[in-house]
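#structure-requests
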Amino acid sequence: MKKKIGFLHAHYSNIEYIEIALSAYDVELSHFVDPGLMVRVMSDPDFTESDAKRKVKEQVEWVVQSGVDAVLITCTNYIALLGELATNVPIIKMDEPYFEALCQIDQPQTIVFTNPDTVPGTMDRLQQYAKSKQKKLETEVQVIENTFELIMSGKKAEYEQEVVIFLKKQRKRVVSVAQLSMVGAAQQVERETSQTIINPLHTLVTSMVKQLNLKAKE
């Protein structure tokens, strides 16, 4: 039977990445998008963290009630805000397979972001995950300044160009990109330089195929 997966995104640009990555599998995908929540978190001082947590919980429960077999959250900020939530379907957090890949690396590594507000929650979760695996990581965080506003305003080409330029300068360390919106640029740099850049989409698909027993299209 075809699996039904509901995706919760913070921006519409993430949909294309997911659709392409899972196009080879016999699945039905539903996308739920709310870019307004993170905008409000970043701009409204009266909108508290508890307000944001409550909103993310409501969003996830809404997706669950749509009749899906699993919920997948692609926004690292949403994941950090949600914490743990008991539901009758699996909740897959995009960053956990990514964290697992980072924990397999025994050398210094650079983790690249475009959204500075994503950094604290993601890095806290990474350290907690590494600790649970009894793994000590040597990481450096790099934020590509003044670029996240481009993707949030629909300027995808300009955004990816800035990310490509930055990634091409990171040639001396193991490099990964922490956000789904950066995957296209990371893949472009891989094609043009033969440098491997770890990204959360590749690790996610590999994990989903195994966890949900996804079948390839005939």
